[in-house]
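Help!! Second protein's tokens look totally different from the first
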Amino acid sequence: MKVKDIIKSALVLIGREDVARSIEKEEESETASLTAEEKETVETLLYCFNSVEDELARCYFPLKAEEALTSEDGVYSFSGFTERPLKIISVTAKGKKIKFEADVRFLKTDAKEITVLYRYAPPKKSLDGESAFGGEVSERLVAAGTASEYCLICGEAAEAQAWESVYRGEIDRLRRKSINRTSFPPRRWV
């Protein structure tokens, strides 16, 4: 999903189709540009989008990465990871799980070559960026959360609550769907 498409959807949800059209015109021609008020609206929505994407990754739909790393002294700085780690799930060396120590800035093991599986927070996106989510996490879900945050910032409490309920409803629907996919083995003793 493109961030720009999510922002345009959120603009439609909050009743600012004019700004969404201005973004489309800006894409089509190099001469058209957004007004100062439209730029401020888009920047605020972008801020809201980044907050929603971060919340989704931290609380509901974790993003995972696996990475092979090497170090001469067994100390692996988190700044050297491709993504920003939130939680280390496992560390393996030569296919076997190994013990590790995690500090605020680094991961320490006895191995010089490791593979780390971890959860991460998505980086901040620009308007031309790509969302960290796709597939089941729909554009509608992210746009509703973005619209809710925007309305809250603007002091539109009733509208913020309405979009928040759509956002939470979509999250609940997806979480129920993933629980339903869980299968239990048949009871052989019955």
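Here's the second one for comparison:
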Amino acid sequence: MPKENPRKLTQFRKNLRLARRLWPQEVSVSLTEGLRTLSTAYRLSIAAGDLQFLDGKWYVTHTGLLGLAHRNRCSGIRVQPAHQFCDPAANRWVFKATVYKRPGSKGFVGYGDADPSNVSDLVRGAEMRVAETRAVNRALRKAYGIGLCSVEEIGTFHRSVESFSSQQNSPTNGDVPGNGQPRLRDRLCQLIRQHRLDPSLVKSYAADFCGTDSLRKASREQVESFINHLAEMAAEDRAGLLCQLNSYNSPQEVRS
């Protein structure tokens, strides 16, 4: 049986030590094996920002994907807007990216979209750049066999978050729809617990994000968009997310 490359094994051990320190209750045996593959086959590093842990899965960041392409001597990346789907007046953009692993190759294609409803408030107004980045990420995943590992490509969910306030402190009940994916309510509660967020502030933020008086008045599509947005912010800029949530904190009433 061939021995593993010592350098790659060292990278895995560094990643495992840091993962156990950052997520001590969540790194299971199966996740450890996944981390071994990402560490040895792709040389990804948690410390370098290549990997994040989200919703029980390893998430390869934009930085990690670009580093992977560089190490594999990617020949080039071509990005262009899909004009027929763009609406500049509404800040709605769709981009097509093609990754060429070698000169003269056919290339791997990925599409990315962004509009004010599916981007963070921190990048509102920069939807064009967000769509471009998403397109590049998807093309790079196809080119290097990373798979569905980013927030924007986690599967669609079903059902509305109607009983959120009564469920916010309860554990995920394991009730899933017919396709085996968690309900939106359970997905949101899991994000709140995982990232230690204030449920009441998240609820206020969600209603504002969806443009409704209360969360239960939002459509399934609006709620799903918010959950994906919340997960992305929590993984990539938790400090910014906490700042955003704190803006919904009402001043305490002063009593005499």
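Reply: Different proteins will give different token patterns, so don't panic. The chain has a mean pLDDT of 78.
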